[in-house]
């Protein structure tokens, strides 16, 4: 009986995690700010939107640094490093974009 209870608990936890992920996605997708999810190297995993001239499918999997002017690259790198070091979300502001596409 304990094995069935453990399995049921895992199923319930998975359902809750899916609900939370869907809620997060809804919030981020509709956020007025540009939101990206990147790995430690800065490779884009998710974007809630792109800038004009860059299609979503062209940005996912590419380095976030490709799209930033040189003045912002170090700021972005430090921000990404801080997120991975602390586990806390962070943000930076970049007003100018390089659009290599």
Describe the protein in words.
This protein is mostly helical and 101 residues long. The protein folds into 2 domains: 1-30; 33-101, PAS domain (Beta-Lactamase, 2-Layer Sandwich). It has 3 helices and 2 strands. The chain has helices at residues 2-29, 56-59, 70-86; strands at residues 36-38, 44-47. It has a two-stranded antiparallel sheet. Strand 1 and strand 2 form a beta hairpin. The termini are far apart. The model has no long low-confidence stretch (mean pLDDT 85).
What keyword list fits this structure?
101 residues; mainly alpha; Beta-Lactamase; 3 helices; 49% helix
SSE arrangement:
Elements: H1 2-29, E1 36-38, E2 44-47, H2 56-59, H3 70-86
Antiparallel strand pairs: 1-2
What is the overall number of helices?
3
Detail the poorly predicted runs.
none
The CATH homologous superfamily of the largest domain corresponds to PAS domain
Largest sheet: 2 strands, antiparallel
Enter the CATH topology name of the largest domain: Beta-Lactamase
Q: Which CATH architecture of the largest domain is right? A: 2-Layer Sandwich
Order of strands in the sheet with the most strands? 1-2
Compute the separation of the termini in Å: 58 Å
**Considering DSSP H and I runs of 4 or more, what fraction of the residues is helical?**
40-55%
- The gross shape turns out to be elongated
Radius of gyration: 18 Å
Total strands:
2
Structural class: mainly alpha
By CATH reckoning, the class of the largest domain would read Alpha Beta
* Domains, number: 2
Mean pLDDT: 85
Order of helices and strands: HEEHH
Fraction of residues in β-strands: 5-15%
């Amino acid at each position: 009986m304990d094995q069935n209870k453990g399995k049921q608990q895992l199923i319930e936890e998975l359902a809750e995690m899916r609900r939370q992920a869907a809620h997060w996605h809804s919030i981020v997708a509709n956020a007025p700010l540009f939101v990206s999810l990147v790995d430690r190297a800065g490779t884009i995993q998710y974007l809630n939107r792109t800038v004009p001239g860059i299609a979503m499918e062209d940005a996912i999997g590419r380095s976030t640094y490709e799209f930033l002017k040189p003045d912002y690259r170090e700021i972005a790198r430090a921000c990404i490093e801080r997120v991975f070091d602390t586990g806390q979300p962070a943000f930076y502001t970049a007003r100018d974009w390089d659009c290599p596409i």
